[in-house]
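Reviewers of the previous submission asked for a worked example of the structure-prediction workflow described in the proposal, so we include one complete record here. The input consisted solely of the amino acid sequence. No template or homolog information was supplied to the procedure at any stage.
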Amino acid sequence: MSERKPKFQKLTPIRDAEIGIYSEALDYVFENNDLRNIAISGAYSAGKSSVLESYKTLHLDKNFLHISLAHFRSEDDSSDDIDTASNDRLESDTVKESVLEGKILNQLIHQISPNCIPQTNFRIKQNFSPRKLACLVMATAVFVLALLHILFFSGWQGYVGSISNVWIKNILSFTVDNSSPLISGTICAILAIALIYYIYKAQANKGIFKRVSADKFEIEIFEGSDDSYFDKYLNEVLYLFEQCKADVIVFEDMDRYNANRIFERLREVNTLINVQRNKGAKAKPLRFLYLLRDDIFVSKDRTKFFDFIIPIVPVVDGSNSYDQFMKHLDRL
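From that input alone, the workflow returned the following structure tokens.
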């Protein structure tokens, strides 16, 4: 009797589901540029991710960027924590919003090529090309040799003239010619201009030089910003979202946190980004798409925050579980 091979069921989203009306609803979203904050709502495991993944498979021309903020309650999280004082709840919510902001930035930064965000203040580690390093070393060596050749030209002429080996003397003869310092000066000037260019570029992108000080004497070179921390943070977020080159930013599992204010901040970010895009004559808006459970907001808040809501009817619930059960039995 041959041993029957076991069959397994994946828990990942389905990418070839028949999404029907949901595809038409998402097409409607992309046909209307004023729909920029969209919710796909439904209970956990209702199929929200499968609907979106199946739509992406059918529309490869649209660029989706995913930010997943998974958070799961542990056994130590008891329901008694809900009865804490109001000040403690407010402080807890603030910490959670800070954590969410950090997670969003962290995932966003690592999904964008560092070459696309040279002006970000966040440090991004990347591999340094050995070829680029070799070129920098060679350029530095050439600059130093050319500079020494100009400064000590007279002494170099005397040294080369004193060499008895004719073969070596002939090789170095061009370096003692009276016009050779002009060539060395040209090389130094070209390399110095290249250095100044990269310094200005680094200053414009990173702001690496702030001030020059000597004991009690201090000169402010680049004026410091008077913006608050939130303003600086918001400007950084706007820059990163603008440079991500995505049509849609998908936020997953944000409803697992008890920090609804983050939705208000993200809506503000979305508004500011699209204002900038309109100034730059960019027709396509940046859309934020949220995968959320149904009860994340009360009814009036949902309709006020979201421009469009797509409710997902669960594939398996009390009314159709028998059909799904029989389907799996037949497959096995």
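The chain has eleven helices and seven strands. We consider this example representative of the routine output the project will generate in years two and three.
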